[in-house]
């Protein structure tokens, strides 16, 4: 299987040809926004408890391993979208990243992080999408503030490995108490694109 380059990752972001009606936007400002090459290795050393480090890292589409390339987009249909992060790794690192995330979720029920002004609580493993080579999914409450002034925002995350590329989908509910649903059609369409890309024969010459 191919290790996708930065350019290939950008070309393989789902578009209207793959999913009619989909809207895909870069995050940030400028000609290219912050949609390219923004994911860095994240060992979560400021996460408490430390066993939750892989969980806190994946919230930003990251892991403890250095990516070959990455893109971050907001993708989906009107009124139903998710933050989509595609990260290409060196051989074996993608599988390690998913494995460490799966292991962390066996015991991680909540955490805080020094770089975040929020707490993540009530982490619960959910059914992973039936795409790619393997996947992990979970949901939790993002808690902002404290006491009676706190706000709990339902959040859902799914990480799906396609060869050495990991696609991370994060959905945030815009209504407190309402579950955050990751668009299934987005996962299906993006998975088909990535499966074809990582299994394609290298271009010669």
Question: How is this structure best summarized?
Answer:
The protein is α+β, with helices and mostly antiparallel strands. The protein contains four helices and nine strands.
Describe, in plain words, how this protein is organized in 3D.
With 205 residues, the chain is an alpha+beta fold. It is 20% helix and 33% strand. The protein has a nine-stranded antiparallel beta sheet, with helices on both faces. A hairpin with a 6-residue loop joins strand 7 (134-144) and strand 8 (151-162). The chain starts with 5 loop residues before the first helix and ends in a 6-residue tail after the last helix.
Shape: globular
Distance between the termini: 18 Å
Please state the structural category: alpha+beta
Low-confidence stretches: 29-37
Order of helices and strands: HEEHEEHEEEEEH
Mean pLDDT: 89
């Amino acid at each position: 299987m191919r290790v996708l380059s930065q350019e290939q990752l950008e070309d393989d972001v789902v578009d209207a040809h793959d999913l009619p009606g989909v809207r895909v936007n870069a995050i940030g400002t400028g000609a290219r926004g912050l949609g390219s090459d923004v994911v860095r290795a994240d060992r979560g050393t400021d996460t408490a408890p430390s066993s939750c480090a892989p969980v806190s890292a994946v919230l930003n589409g990251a892991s403890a391993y250095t990516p070959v390339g990455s893109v971050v987009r907001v993708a989906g249909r009107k009124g139903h979208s998710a933050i989509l992060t595609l990260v290409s790794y060196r051989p074996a690192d993608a599988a390690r990243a998913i494995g460490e995330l799966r292991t962390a979720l066996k015991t991680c029920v909540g955490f805080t992080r020094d770089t975040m002004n929020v707490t993540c609580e009530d982490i619960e493993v959910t059914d992973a999408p039936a795409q790619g080579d393997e996947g992990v999914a979970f949901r939790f409450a993002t808690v902002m503030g404290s006491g009676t002034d706190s706000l709990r925002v339902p959040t859902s995350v799914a990480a799906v490995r396609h060869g050495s590329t990991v696609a991370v989908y994060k959905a945030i509910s815009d209504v407190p108490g309402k579950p955050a649903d990751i668009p299934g059609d987005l996962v299906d369409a993006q998975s088909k694109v990535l499966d074809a890309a990582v299994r394609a024969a290298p271009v010669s010459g």
